[in-house]
Write a structure and sequence with these properties.
heterodimer, A: alpha/beta, five-stranded parallel sheet, 16% strand, B: alpha/beta, Rossmann fold, seven-stranded mixed sheet, five-stranded antiparallel sheet, 9 helices
Chain lengths: 473, 297
């Protein structure tokens, strides 16, 4: 057996220059060229234990698709990924690979060596396919069957969980309809994650591919309002997947949150991403801030801060109550934010938002914190330092501190069992513990989590729905 | 595929207030008084929340009454029957709480807020209530639908700020008179924030007048209308934060911090004014261009 060559350094990802990109909405990471992809694919040792696969919530056949890249069979590589992941262009961009597949990479375990850039390779393959789409022969093309006698499944919510579940079920031969509340499908992929991290054109193309597989999409359909699950049953749907996301944004319980210029990250990002408030051609307005404070330390906080910079803020501060080590954001997102000029105020907790006479924000008061013993989450608990308050002038405050369960559908679905935080209670198969034909996954089950974990849940639920329907019909 | 406009009728000579009926069968099937809809005119449009002013389950239509105040509402006012609205979402929010009350139920509708009183008043009547409607506007020309209310209401009163029609004064003045005359079970006030504030202050039982449960309909700024953005949030008198879209839009008027809401509604006022001026200028330029072409052609 030939000795495997160990290449310790990763092929760097080309980026838009930080100074330039901080003022535009174009994608930050530019993606691998073919040469870069081949160089990176060569690093994979094709080890037998395939630890990376176990780290992936949807178990992409990682070594196999990388081997196909080396053979320059990019179509084959894409098909290999798509066996388990219907949205590769999206996952290649927004998955936290460093805590999933790449964390388990054997190459990364070797001293001074970095794991294979699996996400970057996945993105390369998916992007290659978007530029070189496969010609679909007329026989293979999906055609709307008038006498459609396939079993009908309704997917409620067109975010990552719903899209994945829909794709999987369509591939299994079901007639699948997604009901999306917004006018555009994609959930957090279109309203939450900014253009510069995930171009909306990429999302649209991935969704178009699902439509080519026969998935039907009804936008502007708020289930629980226009139709409820009982109505859908009467319309002939045999199983339901609820993936409506987390929903209600949380506001800090401090004085001043009612002021103008205080908004949830959900609202800020939705105005900018979904409604394109950054584009003067679009009518939706967004609050312009000169000095912006973002509360929180997750990816949503990073996205909000970097968006504020791009909208022309002079100073953007992230106020986080623990230290740099504890921020829940992806390392890469944090580093990008630093490079672009976002200021980080660690170990600070806002205590008050101060307004002017007209009811607009003019400053915040923050308190210094110190880290104590680890708490239930395993992170060191921040402890307030009395009498260390000071004032920072800001004119825009964005709260990126999480969300609560959205009651819109769950409260209107009779007998749907919820847990004490109002999330849907499901068994290990993703099936509601109280209504057998209802399945659920993503943030409405787990609370705020990642795109890929929602996709994992959507995929698992699809398999369970298939099993459930096979048993009955 | 968009939502088709069935009819558009201007309700005042200045053509700033208009009634628009759209074809939305699924929405109409579920809509009730109290619900609202969100529409987006075209790809570059914003999401505009509007309270349902009427619904027809058989014809499958929804009626809205709109006042052209900003850019988007001015733009809708220029659409014609047969035109399509790109996105139409609803019914959103909670339906009104309709039940039989012992004493009369009074609706106070102010300005375009007269319209959303209509379906609720009708539902209250169908439930067997004695329904009183106080319709108020700045001036005669801005008062509409009096005949529609007279069809089924037990009593209808008109007030105008300038006295050009009905009683000179505000709706709240008429309400005060009624409160002194007879016992009332429920007040529902829909209109400008300041009007709803004064109605709530009148009925909160803290003056010499009796306490009357009062519902107000909050027309706050919002994006999604499904609980996601929190832009529509309001403070209760107990310091709680609630969302108009999922907790309302109809809420207990005595528990709303109106002073805060009045400030919150000024959030985009400055920007909106500039935007409307720019839009009107563009429209004038287009009209001028078309006229010149016509003269030439």
């Amino acid at each position: 057996m030939p000795k495997v060559e160990i290449i310790k350094e990763r092929t760097p990802m080309p980026h838009q220059d930080a100074k330039i990109r901080a003022h535009n909405f174009e994608e930050v990471a530019l993606g691998f060229t073919e040469e870069m992809a081949l160089a990176e694919a060569k690093r994979c040792m094709q080890c037998k234990n395939r630890a990376c696969v176990k780290g992936c919530p949807v178990e992409v056949a990682i070594p196999e698709f990388i081997a196909l890249i080396l053979e320059k069979d990019y179509r084959g590589a894409l098909k290999k990924i798509k066996e388990t992941n219907v949205l590769p262009a999206i996952c290649g961009r927004v998955c936290p690979q460093e805590t999933q597949c790449e964390q388990y990479c054997t190459l990364g375990k070797i001293k001074d060596s970095k794991p294979v850039g699996i996400g970057r390779l996945e993105r390369f393959v998916a992007d290659w396919d978007l530029v070189n789409p496969e010609e679909i022969s007329p026989e293979d093309a999906y055609c709307e069957d008038v006498d459609d006698d396939r079993l009908k499944v309704a997917i409620i919510g067109g975010g990552p969980a719903g899209l994945t579940c829909a794709g999987e079920l369509a591939n299994l031969g079901y007639s699948v309809t997604i009901f999306e509340a917004f006018h555009k499908t994609g959930g957090v992929l279109v309203y939450g994650i900014p253009e510069f991290r995930l171009p909306k054109d990429i999302v649209k193309k991935e969704i178009d591919k699902l439509k080519e597989c026969g998935v039907k999409i009804e936008v502007n359909s708020v289930i629980g309002q226009i139709l409820d699950i009982e109505d859908l049953r009467k319309m002939g749907f045999k199983a339901f997947f609820i993936g409506v996301g987390a929903g209600l944004p949380v506001f800090l319980k401090i004085p001043g949150t009612e002021l103008n210029g205080v908004l949830s990250a959900n609202e800020y990002l939705t105005r900018v991403n979904l409604m394109k408030a950054y584009d003067p051609e679009y009518d939706t307005m967004v609050d312009q801030g000169k000095n912006v404070a973002v509360f929180g330390g997750g990816n949503v906080a990073m996205d909000s801060a970097r968006t504020a910079l791009r909208l022309g803020a002079e100073k953007v501060m992230i106020i986080y109550r623990r230290s740099e080590k504890e921020i829940p954001a992806r390392r890469e997102e944090y580093e990008h934010a630093v490079e672009e000029g976002v200021e980080f105020h660690f170990l600070r907790n806002p205590t008050k938002i101060i307004g002017d006479d007209e009811g607009f924000v003019k400053a915040i008061e923050v308190l210094k914190m110190e880290l104590g013993e680890p708490d239930a989450s395993g992170r060191r608990r921040p402890i307030a330092q009395p009498r260390t308050e000071y004032i920072i002038d800001v004119d825009l405050c964005i709260m990126a501190i999480g969300a609560k369960a959205n009651p819109l559908l769950t409260k209107k679905t009779k007998n749907l069992k919820l847990n004490k935080w109002d999330y849907i209670e499901v068994n290990e198969k993703g099936q509601s513990v109280s209504i057998p034909d209802v399945f659920a996954g993503g943030d409405i089950v787990t609370g705020s989590a990642t795109v890929i974990s929602a996709m994992g849940a959507g995929k698992k639920a699809a398999a369970s729905i298939h099993e459930y329907l096979l048993n009955i019909y | 595929m968009g939502t088709k406009i069935v009819s558009k009728t201007f309700l005042n000579p200045n053509k700033t207030v208009f009634e628009m009926v759209v074809e939305a069968p699924l929405v109409a099937k579920k809509a009730k008084g109290g619900n609202f809809v969100i529409l987006r005119i075209d790809e570059t449009g914003e999401r505009i929340p509007l309270t349902v002013a009427d619904y027809d389950k058989e014809k499958g239509t929804i009626t809205m009454v709109i006042m052209a105040v900003g850019k988007s509402t001015t733009q809708i006012s220029k659409l014609e029957p047969g035109d399509e609205i790109l996105d139409f979402i609803g019914p959103l929010g909670n339906k009104a709480h309709i039940k039989k009350f012992e004493h009369p139920v009074v609706f106070v509708g102010g300005g375009v807020g007269i319209a959303p009183c209509y379906p609720q008043a009708k539902e209250m009547k169908e439930e067997g209530n004695h329904v009183i409607a106080i319709l108020s506007a700045r001036t005669k020309n801005l008062l509409f639908w009096e005949d529609k209310f007279r069809e089924f209401c037990d009593e209808v009163f008109i007030t105008t700020d300038d006295g050009s029609l009905g009683m000179k004064g505000f709706g709240v003045d008429k309400l005060k008179q009624l409160m002194l005359e007879k016992p009332l079970s429920q007040v529902i006030a829909i209109g400008p924030m300041i009007m709803m504030k004064f109605v709530a202050l009148l009925t909160n039982g803290k003056k010499d007048l009796p306490l009357i449960p009062t519902i107000v309909s909050l027309n706050t700024l919002m994006v999604d209308g499904t609980g996601m953005c929190g832009g529509c949030r309001f403070q209760t008198m107990h310091g709680e934060t609630k969302f108009a879209c999922v907790d309302g839009p109809d809420v207990d008027g005595h528990d709303v911090d109106f002073d805060n809401l009045l400030k919150r509604n000024t959030r985009f006022v400055r920007v909106e004014k500039i935007r409307l001026e720019k839009y009107n200028e563009e429209c004038r330029a287009i009209n001028k261009f078309c006229e010149e072409k016509e003269i030439e052609g």
